[in-house]
Predict the 3D structure of the following.
Amino acid sequence: MQLNTCSLFFEVLVSIGYMMIFKKCGIKLFWAFIPFAREYQISRCSDRENEGRVYAFFSGMVLIMQVVFNFLSDYPYLVVFLAIPYLVLYIGAFVYAIRVYTGLTEVFGRSKKWAVLFVLFEGITVLIWGFSKKFQPVKELNLIDKEGAKVFGKEVRPENEGLSVNITERTATDFFKKKTLLKDIHMNIPKGHMVLLLGGSGAGKTTFVNAVTGYEKANAKILLNDRNIYTEYSRMLFDIGFVPQQDLMRGTDTVKLTLSDAASLRLPSGVSRAERKERIENVLNEFGLKAIENSLVDKLSGGQRKRLSIAMEYISDPSLFILDEPDSGLDGVVARGLFEKLRAIADEGKIVVVITHTPDRVIDLFDDVIVLAKDASRTGRLAWYGPVDEVYEFFGKKSMEEILLSVNQKDEGGEGRADEFVEKYADYMQEKAG
């Protein structure tokens, strides 16, 4: 009992030592007392987060194996059987511990010999580093969460027709860290509008699309033609079309068979065989695929494959149509023809939302633009939603490419003005709301 008490007391001291190191690095102190998480957090302090994930895994498995051994103390043969995997895990934990603590010595500007002392004499070394004022980081880590741009926080009033988006936030937990991926995004998109979704890498375009379609739900209320996508998800699936960047077609199938399979999946079960056949014929004609309906997918040109990929989702006649880089790999003339087709679809009363990396060559075909940007907290925020002809004045730029550069972070080659425009848009919406 006395030994257990001493061990517990020593473990508390070690945790306090880690707590003091975390304080120097700007990491929340309570992590020092949580097994597995502590190993990961010290890796963040070491600027070795990727290695820390593996280190935390190995350390956790070693601890679990030790608990298992205690339960199997009366079964020596099982202990021997588990000894080899335990040894492998222990060696893995040792190797990654050396990597993590080597990183810590670099952050604190100390000799790498300290990394070995951390592994072999963890308790004493942690206490020295934690309590001694001589041990301070010499490298900026930026681990303290920064505040992002201010929140507008006012939901838009849903309209009876069109798409109403009110996203309070979309969060995810990534290895002991809660991340806010999207925040404070509110808009109404009318029927018949073709909308450009613009944003740099990591700005939240895919997360936004997944939240709007209900594929990954957010803390949000999404209405399509006055119907809640989240609460009526199974019924609304047929009213939403999403075309990914990479198609999922079998090259050995014909165009018509590909559309037929899509119709079987995308059309409601109540649709008769005759209605399904008529819908396939209409889509073949509408997308200019009738003449090649018996051609194999592998034999199609890039433009034909794109049209077929779009037709597969359009087979259900969705009210909301979202496309991720439909012009990827296409030359200017073919891409232009594809976007003109999307414009025609919008003119039929659909909502078409498009992500493209070359918007300026077809921007005249769009009604509105959504600009997403990462604020200082690396959260996807709404920097603009509105008519194309007003966005240039708002950002003081002459092209979509320049607008994108203005909101991209400086370490991505941009101007780093995301917070400025997110707040400017919030003020604009406040004035508009009266």
In short: DSSP finds 15 helices and ten strands in the chain. Residues 163-433 form a domain with the Rossmann fold fold (CATH 3.40.50.300). The two ends are 70 Å apart (CA to CA). Residues 26 and 144 are 5 Å apart (CA to CA).
